[in-house]
Design a protein that fits this description.
Elements (H helix, E strand, L loop, with lengths): L3 E7 L3 H12 L4 E5 L24 H14 L3 E4 L2 E7 L2 E6 L3 E9 L3 E3 L7 H4 L4 E2 L2 H4 L7 E5 L3 H10 L5 E6 L8 H9 L3 E5 L1 E9 L2 E9 L5 E5 L2 E4 L3 E3 L29 E3 L11 H23 L1
Parallel strand pairs: 1-2, 1-6, 2-3, 6-17, 8-15, 9-10, 9-15, 10-11
Antiparallel strand pairs: 4-5, 5-6, 7-16, 12-13, 13-14
Helix pairs in contact: 1-2, 1-7, 5-6
């Protein structure tokens, strides 16, 4: 007979791993399904300075600490590229590329993926000079010139990280003002290796022999074009939810984020969502862990109600 889990958690970012910790401590038989390494977007973050209890910790280190916590509690962990969820009476069937898993409840914590600019040459040069992860690919650009696109915390923090590797870092942002925390913005403006190109958008990524050599930018006010020579480009312009595979079972908003209530309940009974994949105002590690705790507690109540 096919095994029936109490709870399946889809995604092993901070929301998913927190859900697993709370569920395991409550005595549930739980499995986490993840198509990559545990950590989610934390893996792409060089330094975390706003997670309570750690004045400074790298994203990969925090990811590993969370994952080790789940493993000490005996949480089952499996690779799985989830393609959908369907209902079978009171059970939920989670489908992956290779197999199906059955449970009484599900928590979706699939997070987000980095948004693309859609500029000319972007797709062709992805991985050939264009990256969405400074901590993953920064070493390839030691003592070279790079550009960072974006104006939020991620863009500015990764630009600061890259100054320890690259010769020069140019931040390209479509506005005059940044959306980052003031302490991060102040560090950027004081760093001699960083050049600011404000009110600019990228029109094209240019290549020679299949490798990035420059970007063409356009001033949003004057529409004047200019070329910035660079060997690498790192894009941080926001994230899109990983939720398309769930659109037939839970309600999504116009942007594709999963709609939940304060209990992290979705429109489908027994299916919960937590973390960045949810419709919410603040997407941070600490809010993801909060969502995960709430989702697991309410999933526990739902599972117990099935026994009544």
């Amino acid at each position: 007979m096919e095994k029936i889990y109490d709870l399946i958690i889809i995604g092993a970012g901070p929301a998913g791993m927190t859900s697993a910790i709370y569920a395991s401590r409550a005595g549930l038989d739980v499995i986490m399904l993840e198509k990559g390494a545990p950590g989610g977007q934390m893996l792409n973050t060089y330094e975390v300075e706003n997670y309570t209890g750690f004045d400074k910790i790298t994203g990969p280190d925090l990811s590993m600490k969370m994952f080790e916590h789940t493993q000490k509690l005996g949480v089952e962990y499996a690779y799985g590229n989830v393609t959908g969820i369907k209902e079978d009476g009171s059970f939920k069937i989670v489908k992956t590329d290779d197999e199906e898993f059955v449970s009484k409840a599900v928590i979706i914590s699939t997070g987000t993926v980095n948004r693309r600019l859609g500029a000319k040459g972007e797709e062709k040069l992805a991985g050939r000079g264009i990256s969405w992860c400074a901590i993953c690919d920064g070493a390839f650009f030691r003592d070279k010139d790079v550009v960072v696109v974006g104006g939020g915390n991620s863009a500015l923090e990764e630009a600061l990280y890259l100054t320890g590797i690259a010769r020069k870092v140019t931040i390209i942002h479509r506005r005059q003002g940044f959306r980052a925390e003031k302490v991060v913005e102040d560090r950027v403006k004081k760093n001699e290796k960083i050049v600011l190109e404000l009110d600019q958008v990228i029109e094209a990524f240019n290549e020679t022999d299949g490798k990035l050599t420059s970007v063409t930018v356009k001033n949003v006010k004057t529409e004047k074009l200019k070329e910035i020579i660079c060997d690498g480009a790192f894009i941080y312009i926001g994230q899109d939810p990983v939720s398309a595979m769930f659109k037939d079972i839970v309600k999504l908003n116009k942007q594709g984020f999963i709609i939940t209530n304060d209990n992290m309940e979705t429109s489908c009974k027994g299916v919960y969502a937590a973390g960045d994949v949810c419709e919410k105002e603040l997407r941070q590690i600490i809010t993801a862990t909060s969502d995960g705790a709430i989702a697991s507690q309410n999933a526990l109540k739902y599972i117990e109600s099935l026994k009544a």
